[in-house]
Design a protein that fits this description.
Helices cover 32% and strands 20% of the residues. β8 and β9 (342-345) form a beta hairpin. The chain contains 12 helices and 15 strands. The radius of gyration is 31 Å and the shape is extended. α8 (154-167) packs across α10. InterPro entries: Phage_capsid, Phage_capsid-like_C. Pfam families: Phage_capsid. Residues 148-434 form the Phage capsid-like C-terminal domain. It comes from Actinacidiphila polyblastidii.
């Protein structure tokens, strides 16, 4: 505050605040007010050394309390310092009722966890840790099947899924159902037509005053989510466990989440439902948009896109997204709309002369996801219009890990196996006949083979 004198004591502060002109200058803006308060605080610290001593003593006391509090210190060590996210314990993937919660205080990082559970670990501390994991795992009985591995702490499991979410296509958009047991029934409305009722049998009608009411009986169905076993396997040099456990932690933090997202997505996309999830491409409710008359093999026409859009449930359009094989890009980029004897490109518009323009990532206003996980160009499902809100993912929310030094003993490697239990299935069992019109509608639309 260059134009205002900084008060040296309480009396001078009261005098400054009591003067209307001075107070108006002090409170001219939030910045001037803050500057004035900070300047006064600094002046007090200089004129009264006791204040600085009090601050120092209180800081040392609080820091000492933290060091004496093991649980608090452990929680500080487990903080997720990723600036893009909240602490893991607050993420939507963390379940405070999951089997691995009891291990969170013991293992804050992957390096700590594998240092204790590695098959080659020796020493009393490792044996005690393994015994503690086994005790918690056994207490859950049949809800955490024994695969010969160790239960993974919930903190690490939820972090694994949080990172995987950034790489996934289906999970980040689907409806995820926590599974407290290996099999969970989930309600559904068995709806096939909106011609005379909605939601599987709910009817609405107009009546005169005192008129009789009409019964309605919605047909409720049930989907059975049964946890399937997804196993991730890798072979890691023993040196990483003995000499470079930090490098192993980096591997777990990056490679395993990406691998988990990859194999989940593959099953959620085209899984056959036998020992694995039922993918949305195989949904019984999916509708198939036929090719145009005389359409060339492997081609994509604007009419294909428009007709696929028209088969989406109207209530799902604002959530739906296009999921296309990357091989479809050349056809999408060059498809044209014929107008009389001329025509023009549709999706790309007029590209820059030097080819530097970025292609749009929407079609008809909805996002486009390119992937290699759907059907290849020219086959049914190479272009899909999907509302993933109608896809259910059952997440058992319990993972296990096991290491073996014997299996690859001759190669001086440790075999690592991580097991997740998860299921996936479309939430609707058949396409819906609209109130008016004959073309069925669905949240799963795909273009037929061409």
């Amino acid at each position: 505050m260059p134009t205002l004198a900084v008060p040296r004591n309480q009396d001078e502060l009261a005098e400054a605040v009591g003067d209307t002109a001075t107070l108006k200058e002090i409170a001219k803006t939030p910045e001037t007010l803050t500057e004035y308060i900070v300047a006064y605080a600094k002046e007090q610290a200089k004129t009264d050394p006791g204040i600085a001593d009090q601050i120092r003593d209180e800081t040392q006391k609080q820091f000492a309390d933290i060091l004496r509090n093991d649980k608090l210190l452990a929680s500080l060590n487990r903080l997720n310092l990723d600036p893009r996210a909240n602490p893991v314990a607050r993420s939507k993937h963390y379940n405070n009722k999951a089997a691995g919660v009891g291990l969170d205080e013991k293992f804050g990082t992957w390096s700590e966890y594998f240092a204790a559970t590695w098959a080659g670990a020796r020493g009393q501390e490792a044996l005690l840790a393994q015994s503690e994991i086994a005790k918690i795992q056994n207490s859950f009985g049949s809800t955490v099947p024994s695969d010969g591995g160790f239960l993974i702490p919930e903190l690490l499991r939820s972090e694994l899924l949080r990172v995987a979410l950034e790489q996934s296509l289906v999970r980040k958009n689907a409806r995820v159902v926590p599974m407290e047991s290996l099999t969970v029934p989930y309600p559904m409305l068995d709806s096939t037509s909106n011609a005379s009722s909605v939601y599987g049998g709910v009817v609405g009608y107009w009546t005169e005053e005192g008129g009789s009411l009409t019964d309605s009986s919605p047909t409720f169905g049930r989907i059975e989510l049964a946890a399937k076993k997804l196993t991730l396997y890798s072979e890691i040099p023993n040196e990483l466990f003995t000499d470079s456990i930090i490098s192993l932690q980096q591997f777990m933090n990056e490679s395993y989440p990406e691998a988990l997202a990859w194999f989940e997505d593959c099953a959620f996309t085209d899984g056959n439902g036998t020992g694995q999830p039922l993918g949305y491409l195989n949904a019984p409710a999916a509708v198939l948009v036929a090719k145009e008359s005389g359409q060339a093999a492997g081609s994509i026409m604007w009419e294909n896109i428009v007709k696929a859009y028209s088969r989406m449930l109207p209530s799902s359009i604002n959530r739906a997204r296009w999921v296309c094989h990357i091989d479809t890009f050349p056809e999408l980029a060059t498809m044209a709309l014929s107008v009389g004897t001329g025509g023009s490109a549709v999706w790309m518009g007029t590209p820059a002369a030097d080819g530097s323009s970025t292609p749009p990532m929407t079609i008809l206003g909805r996002p486009v996801e390119f992937t290699e996980k759907v059907s290849s160009l020219g086959t049914a499902g190479d272009i899909n219009f999907v509302d993933f809100g109608y896809y259910l993912i059952g997440d058992r929310q319990a993972m296990q890990a096991q290491t073996s030094t014997e299996y690859k003993f001759g190669n001086d490697k440790t075999a690592v196996r991580v097991i997740e239990r998860v299921d996936g299935t479309p939430w609707i069992k058949s396409a819906i006949t609209p109130r008016k019109g004959s073309n069925t509608l669905s949240p799963f639309v795909k273009i037929a083979t061409r």
